[in-house]
Automatic annotation (TrEMBL), chain A:
This is DNA-binding transcriptional ArsR family regulator. Gene3D superfamilies: Winged helix-like DNA-binding domain superfamily/Winged helix DNA-binding domain. Keywords: DNA-binding, Transcription, Transcription regulation. The lineage of its organism: Bacteria, Bacillati, Actinomycetota, Actinomycetes, Pseudonocardiales. It comes from the Bacteria.
Automatic annotation (TrEMBL), chain B:
Signal peptide: none annotated. InterPro entries: Glyas_Bleomycin-R_OHBP_Dase, Glyas_Fos-R_dOase_dom, VOC_core. GO terms for molecular function: dioxygenase activity; lyase activity. Pfam families: Glyoxalase. Residues 1-127 form the VOC domain. Keywords: Dioxygenase, Lyase, Oxidoreductase. This is Catechol 2,3-dioxygenase-like lactoylglutathione lyase family enzyme. PANTHER family: GLYOXALASE/BLEOMYCIN RESISTANCE PROTEIN/DIOXYGENASE, GLYOXALASE_BLEOMYCIN RESISTANCE PROTEIN_DIOXYGENASE. It comes from the Bacteria. The keyword Plastid does not apply. It comes from Saccharomonospora amisosensis.
Amino acid sequence: MADVFKALADPTRRHILDELRERDGQTLFELCARLTSKYGLDSSRQAISQHLGILEEVGLVVTRREGRYKFHWLDTSPLRAITGRWPVNDNEGNER
Amino acid sequence: MKVYITSVFVDDQAKALRFYTEVLGFEKKADVPLGEARWLTVTSPQQPEGPELLLEPDSHPAVRPFKDALVADGIPFASFAVDDVEAEFRRLTELGVRFTQEPLRMGPVTTAVFDDTCGNLIQLAAQ
């Protein structure tokens, strides 16, 4: 679980997850284009690739090859360990 | 100085000519036999005197690993301008063209990326 927190601690990695939530199954090229145009990030392609590697290690991103292409998919299931340990209270008005 | 020709590396010139003319809508301009290969260019019907696109053989050993690495990461080799990316996306998808990036609006620009069936990804862009 500590690794998931560490992966989520970085703002670029959170943006990557946001963009995959908007459209799942993206190439590295599309993710880089989105991060640059939407967030003005000037990270190199290699840096984004390394961020994706960290997200993949903790299971938040899954890569799949389809023929000659490689796509990145979001997998939120590792977050279940967090809400399982500290359940979210969904009752309205009880938020603190 | 101006651009008069640019090229894409294709794995099969005859197949490339079919795809670039029959599917994409370019027109053949030059077709000169050159030993095993051809000097084969196409132009846009919207710009017949504009830049030519050379469908260049990718037989040099350095080219295919280069193309494969670009394709794996989704990086387009060339970018073509269209008036309406969404409309081209629908038209080409119906013709069986595979897109690796669906139309994406980025500020004033909309882009999409498709496979040219000759080993390259190509970007469509509209301003």
